[in-house]
Structures are given as C-alpha cells and as structure tokens.
Design goal:
The chain is mainly beta. It has helices at 39-45, 48-51; strands at residues 6-9, 15-22, 25-31, 53-60, 65-67, 70-74.
Amino acid sequence: MGRKLYYFHKDSGLEVDFVIRYQGECSLVEVKAATGNTKSTKTILRHPEKYHVYYAIKLGDYNVGRTEQILTLPLYMAFLLTEL
C-alpha cells in the first residue's frame, strides 16, 4: 500500500524531497547521492516549535546509522519505510 508522499519548499530555499505522515506526526525523507547535503533537513529539525518535525530519514549510498534525529538507510532498504 505505501504512504502518501508530500514535498516541502519555502521561498527561503528550504527544500525537502519527501514528507511522510505516520500516526499524526511528520517525518522528512531525503534521498541523496554519496556526498549529499542535508542542510535543509538539519535546519528544520533545529526548529521543532516552528515546523513540528522531530525526525528525518536519509536514503542513499550509505550504511545503516543514526546521527541525532536522522536515521540513515541504504537505498535498498527504502521499501521498509512502510513499516516505520
């Protein structure tokens, strides 16, 4: 079945590839190349009172890992996003 995907963009330049909702909360999903920058995601996560977002998922050519509020997954695990 999957999840509904949303896109986020502001005139200030903030941009997120996808936003998903689960149990009433939003999570950011970024799909990056090996050296992808998550500047917008980090900016949004630093301001939960403004954006009401507390977690993000980064997909790319990476190993599984977690840094603060960002869960990093290899691309081949993207299908697991339906389980989160």
